[in-house]
Amino acid sequence: MLILVRLIWTVCLIYPKKNNKRDQITGLLTYSGDIFIQFIEGPKRSIDQLMYRLRGDLRHRDLIVLSEGEGHVRLLPDWDMELVSAYEAHHLLRDALRESDRYSTVIALSRLLAKLQPEFYRDPE
Fold this sequence. Notes:
globular, 5 helices, Alpha-Beta Plaits, 3-stranded mixed beta sheet
């Protein structure tokens, strides 16, 4: 079943990957349960246009922007929009977090990690 889901998502990403390449957008897509997490980077105008399209697409609901900013070094410069497992995304984001020296990037990556695998980031009770 997991292979079928991955195949479906790979096919679904063909058109967005083409657009992302044209618009100089890079990033990753992953999911955990019924939560999808997309980390995107690119020129502000391209990101704004992408977000406009996503908000108008009925398949995308409850969009939450965890962080936005300008002038940073891309974390995934060669990824046109890769589908990765939650495990892979967790490790990629943790590596990026360790290498980041910008406060806003650290906060954004921490939020992504907490959304991706909340059991690792809950406050002890």
